[in-house]
Design a protein that fits this description.
Elements: E1 13-17, H1 21-33, E2 37-41, H2 44-54, E3 58-61, H3 70-79, E4 88-92, H4 97-105, E5 110-113, H5 118-129, H6 142-146
Parallel strand pairs: 1-2, 1-3, 3-4, 4-5
Helix pairs in contact: 2-3
Length: 153
């Protein structure tokens, strides 16, 4: 049985790679509540295999992980012919200009500094993908706005 919401379309799959188990769970639940399917990956050595298998719309990647850092994972994703087109968002507590420059030079699409909120992450994902999962507001005519025809008057 899958941990992802059954109603989320497959094109809304995110791979989230972070060695912090608690954060994996929080981000996974937060994104799923907003309609995303999430493949949570806690081991950077497993990341490439799982990303290749899942073929997500976007990858969110931590930088500070034991054994293999996020830069190495990013470099591997972007140098793989079948994965290179997948946008990668860096989510890291490291906030130095050097880290940001390195991430962007390796092909990162965006850089979020931890701690970040789920709303900020969703907006960044949507911006990177050029789409919004937030439904547009229902149309109202001007009489609905202030209760009188013609608006504020």
């Amino acid at each position: 049985m899958s941990d992802v919401p059954q109603n989320a379309p497959p094109e809304h799959l995110v791979c989230y790679v972070d060695d912090e188990v608690n954060l994996l769970g929080v981000v996974k639940r937060g994104l799923e509540r907003r309609g995303w399917k999430v493949e949570a990956i806690g081991d950077p050595f497993d990341a490439l295999r799982k990303i290749r298998k899942a073929m997500p719309r976007v990858v969110v990647l931590d930088l500070l992980m034991p054994g293999m850092d996020g830069f190495q994972v990013l470099r591997a994703v972007k140098s793989s012919q079948d994965l290179a087109s997948i946008p990668v968002i860096i989510g890291s507590a490291r906030d130095s200009q050097k880290d940001k420059e390195m991430a962007f030079s390796l092909g990162a699409a965006a850089f979020l500094v931890k701690p970040f909120g789920i709303k900020e992450l969703v907006l960044t994902i949507e911006s990177v993908l050029g789409q919004s999962m937030i439904p547009p507001p229902e149309r109202t005519d001007s009489s609905d706005v202030f209760g009188r025809p013609g608006g504020a008057g």
